[in-house]
C-alpha cells in the first residue's frame, strides 16, 4: 500500500516538473476568445450575486460551468450563459485583466486576444463602451507590464522596457515581466452585415489602442459567408488583418470561399477535404491549432488523427493555441505538453514551433524584432 502511494506521489511530482518546463518556455497565443478564457472560479463568483437576485438558478449554472465534456452545440449554449454573467462594464474589465494576467503567468510573451464587441441596452452598453471596458482591463493589469499601444502611437520613452528573459538573466533581475497584447474584434456569425460593419468601423477607430484585426467566429452552423464578406473586404482594404474560423464543421463551399478570400490566418481547419488541403498548402495560410478544443468538441476523432501531424511534417505554418482555456479547462503550456507527448516532439522542436509563430503575428516589425531577440536570448538561457 505504502509502495503504491510513493509511486503515485513520484508520478505526480514528475508530472508537475514536466509541466513547469512547458510553463517556463516563452509562448505566443494567437487564438484566445476573451469570454472563453475566464477561469471557472471567476465565472462562479460572477454568477453568485445573479443567483441571489433570482436572475439565474445558481446551482444549475454551477453544474453547467463545472461540466467538462461538451459537444460543439453545448459549447455555444455555454457561451450564451457566460455572456449573461459577464456582459456589464465592470465584469468585462475584470475578466480582461485576469485573462491577460493568467496568460502572462505562464510566460505568454505575446497575446492576441479576440472578443466580440457587444451591445447590451439593459446595462447601457454599446459595442464601443464594451471595448472601452476591455481597454480599461488592459490598463488595470498590475502583475506584469502590458504593452498594447502600437509603437507608432507611443511616446519613445515608453519603449524602454524590453522583454526580458525570465530565467537566469542576471542583467535583468530587476526588470518587470512584460507581455505584448494586441486585440482582434470578432464578428459573431449571428450578426447582420450592418452589425459586422459596425464592428469593423470600431476596430478602425481603436487601432491606436492596439486593435489590429478582425476575426469571424461563433456557432459554425449559423450564418452565411456572404453576409460577412462586405465587412471583411472593407476591413482588409483599410489595412486590418483578418483571421477566420474555417472548417469547424463540414461545409465544403464555405471552406473554399474562405480560402479564396486569402485571410492572413485561419483557425481550426478540422473538416477539410483533399481539395481544401491542396489550396491551403499552396497558399501557405498559417493555421491556428487548438488541440484540446478540437478533441473536446469531437471536431477530430482522436489526437493521433489530428491534422497537426500532416501540417507539421509538411512544414506548413502553424501555431498552437488554446481557443477557450476556461471552457476547455486547459492552458497554453498544457497544449504544448499535449503536442510534445502526442506527436513525439522534443523541447527544442517545441521552442522552434513557438518562435516561428512570430512571423505571422499581426503586430508591427518593431514588435517582431523584439520578440525574435527575446527568443534568441531565451534559447541560450534554456540551453536549447
Ligand atoms: C467558434 C468560438 C469558439 O467573443 O464573447 N467562440 N467561435 N468556434 C469556437 N470554438 C469552440 N470559441 C469561442 O468570446 C466568446 C465567443 O467567441 C466565439 C463565440 O462567438 C463565443 O460566443 P467573446 O469574448
TrEMBL record:
<keyword id="KW-0479">Metal-binding</keyword>
<dbReference type="InterPro" id="IPR006330">
    <property type="entry name" value="Ado/ade_deaminase"/>
</dbReference>
<feature type="domain" description="Adenosine deaminase">
    <location>
        <begin position="26"/>
        <end position="373"/>
    </location>
</feature>
<dbReference type="GO" id="GO:0046103">
    <property type="term" value="P:inosine biosynthetic process"/>
</dbReference>
<keyword id="KW-0378">Hydrolase</keyword>
<dbReference type="InterPro" id="IPR032466">
    <property type="entry name" value="Metal_Hydrolase"/>
</dbReference>
<dbReference type="Pfam" id="PF00962">
    <property type="entry name" value="A_deaminase"/>
</dbReference>
<dbReference type="GO" id="GO:0006154">
    <property type="term" value="P:adenosine catabolic process"/>
</dbReference>
<dbReference type="GO" id="GO:0046872">
    <property type="term" value="F:metal ion binding"/>
</dbReference>
<protein>
    <recommendedName>
        <fullName>Adenosine deaminase domain-containing protein</fullName>
    </recommendedName>
</protein>
<dbReference type="GO" id="GO:0004000">
    <property type="term" value="F:adenosine deaminase activity"/>
</dbReference>
<dbReference type="InterPro" id="IPR001365">
    <property type="entry name" value="A_deaminase_dom"/>
</dbReference>
